[in-house]
Specification:
The protein is 38% helix and 14% strand. By secondary structure, the protein is α/β, with parallel strands linked by helices. The protein has two domains: 327 residues, Alpha-Beta Barrel (TIM Barrel), CATH 3.20.20.30; 90 residues, no CATH class. It is built from 14 helices and 14 strands. Keywords: Flavoprotein, FMN, Monooxygenase, Oxidoreductase.
């Protein structure tokens, strides 16, 4: 039997890959844009719709990245509104464990799970920089080890709150006979909270927990706590290696491979022939990496002002100064060894005759399935059949119509080959993803 592909739909915006200059691009704030993408995903029998969240626009040398989104409404308000205009689609949103508190997040997610009939999911992230922290009273930021420690305790605290209500459906008339419903106490390094949780047990008991870290700490956090992990490892060999690494980590926590769904973010470029698709993909990547963006991304490695360089010219000949303070605002340092990265990039550029812009296009692109619908469907099925992944998060370059062609041309092929449902079955998002149910008798896990 063909393995079922999990599909998530990412709403474009919190990145610098959306092509806002395309005449077909629409608003990232108008609710109609969210509705179009969500309903398209549901028409394609996707598993869930995903909203990332950026808490501050990225800056470099005081300038906002020219291709970044200008703004984004608050995630869970949008998801709650989408619950009313969709019927089956999962609703996943990002909330940071660094600048939120467990009670508030657990309450929002349980509420969304009730409103949507069991379709809520939470992407747990840690926020690494003081630049973002300036928006919050706490300010500052946590060291990497403490960020992941707090995130792990945060998820445990949220689950303790969800576990605090009785397993049976709760009628408010029973409250006097169950006065301890919702009572909880969480004592840990980062949290000391106790009280009464106000939202009865929701359809999934625990909303689906996703995680998007690729560092050693992020992978361990996913292996120990998450139901799914977003990955940037979309190339087949990298994806297979990533899956093998996660499988070994899961074993350390007494979990099986089926308890963690691995979902790389990918783009899809389609055309009537493979050659046409390759040309189309090339034009899209040129639009995604403007001359200014190419210089900004190069500066993140060289860690200095490179505005005097020609984006269509060669890379700097000198190595970065790895001791200088970071010039990046609003983004964690992406590469631990700048000097080694710079030398590797120079070697690649020299060997292939690449300009700065060409080099950045080469090294920053996410995995793309490029070709005819038949080729794309065949490749996606191969990844999942081989357990290199469990599915994909599709990241379109257009808002809000970026999924339309995929749903119209690739989805029918996946359905014909038995890799994707033709209709939704009854049940929650957790059921649809093939995740084990949360034990019904859990209570007071903290």
């Amino acid at each position: 039997m063909t393995r079922q592909i999990i599909l998530g739909a990412h709403f474009p915006g919190v990145n610098n890959t959306t092509v806002w200059s395309d005449p077909a691009a629409g608003s990232q704030i108008d609710f109609a844009s969210f509705v179009h993408l969500a309903r398209t995903a549901e028409r394609g029998r996707f598993d869930f719709f995903f909203l990332a969240e950026g808490l501050r626009l990225r800056e470099q040398r005081g300038r906002i990245h020219d291709l970044d989104v200008a703004g984004r409404p608050e995630t869970f308000t949008v998801l709650a509104a989408l619950a009313a205009v969709t019927e089956h689609l999962g609703l996943a949103g990002t909330l940071t464990a660094t600048y939120n508190e467990p009670y508030e997040v657990a309450r929002k997610l349980a509420t969304l799970d009730h409103l949507s009939g069991g379709r809520a999911a939470w992407n747990v992230v840690t926020s690494p920089d003081a630049f973002t922290g300036a928006n919050f009273r706490r300010g500052g930021y946590l060291d990497p080890a403490l960020r992941y420690e707090r995130a792990r305790e945060f998820v445990a605290a949220a689950r303790a709150l969800w576990d605090s209500w009785p397993a049976d459906p709760f009628d408010t008339s029973d409250f006097l006979r169950t006065p301890d419903a919702g009572r909880y106490a969480v004592r840990s390094t980062h949290f000391d909270i106790a009280g009464q949780f106000t939202v009865p047990r929701s359809p999934q008991h625990h909303p689906v927990v996703l995680q998007a870290g690729d560092s050693d700490g992020g992978r361990d956090l996913a292996a120990s706590t998450a139901d799914g992990i977003f990955s940037r490892h979309g190339e087949y060999d990298d994806a297979a290696a990533f899956a093998a690494d996660l499988t070994s980590r899961l074993a350390r926590y007494g979990r099986s491979r089926d308890e963690l769904k691995i979902l790389p973010g990918v783009s899809v470029v389609l055309a009537d022939t493979d050659a046409e698709a390759q040309e189309k993909a090339h034009l899209i990547r040129r639009a995604q990496v403007s001359p200014q963006t190419a210089i900004l991304l190069l500066e993140q490695v060289w860690n200095t002002d490179l505005s005097q360089y020609d984006p269509d010219g060669p890379l700097p000949a000198e190595d970065p100064d790895d001791t200088a303070p970071s010039i990046i605002q609003g983004r964690t340092r992406q590469r631990d060894d700048r000097v080694a990265t710079a030398r590797r990039w120079r070697d690649l550029a020299e060997a292939r005759g690449l300009s700065i812009r060409d080099l950045i296009i080469e090294v920053t692109g996410r995995q793309a399935f490029v070709g005819t619908p038949d080729r794309v469907a065949t490749e996606m099925i191969r990844y999942v059949e081989d357990r290199a992944t469990d599915g994909f998060i599709l990241v379109p370059h257009l808002t809000p119509t970026g999924l339309d062609e995929f749903v119209d041309t690739v989805v029918p092929l996946l359905q014909e080959r038995g890799a994707l449902r033709t209709e939704y079955e009854p049940g929650t998002l957790r059921d649809r993803l093939g995740l084990p149910p949360v034990p019904a008798d859990r209570r007071g896990a903290a």
